[in-house]
Design brief:
It is built from no helices and 7 strands. It has 103 residues and is an all-beta fold.
Length: 103
């Protein structure tokens, strides 16, 4: 299992700004190791965010996303105390879900 995501959600104006740092190697399958062997592809394919259990963001990713991806988005109508849930799935079937409370 990968390391927990770092999620920060802060009220700003009429919503909340959510910042997420995910821990993932994000290999494209095009690089080679020191021995010249191709490093197999391993990357996040799907990412989603939910506010109090309701889906508010869904994204499909590919190999062009950097190692340890960072994403930021705004959720209108979010208020202090609401629960944000972030989930991802990678091309190996690994999954991770972490939560944070809007401050």
């Amino acid at each position: 299992m990968s390391d927990p995501m770092r999620i920060r959600a802060l009220v700003q104006g009429s919503g909340a700004v959510v910042r997420v740092l995910m821990s993932h190697e994000m290999e494209t399958g095009q690089r080679k190791d020191a021995a010249g062997k191709v490093i197999p592809a391993w990357y996040i394919t799907d990412m989603s965010a939910a506010l109090n259990g309701k889906l508010v963001l869904s994204a499909q990713w590919g190999t062009a996303i950097a190692k340890n991806p960072f994403t930021q988005f705004t959720i209108k109508g979010a208020k202090s105390g609401d629960k944000i849930s972030i989930s991802w799935t990678d091309n190996h079937g690994d999954k991770r879900t972490d939560e944070a409370v809007v401050a």
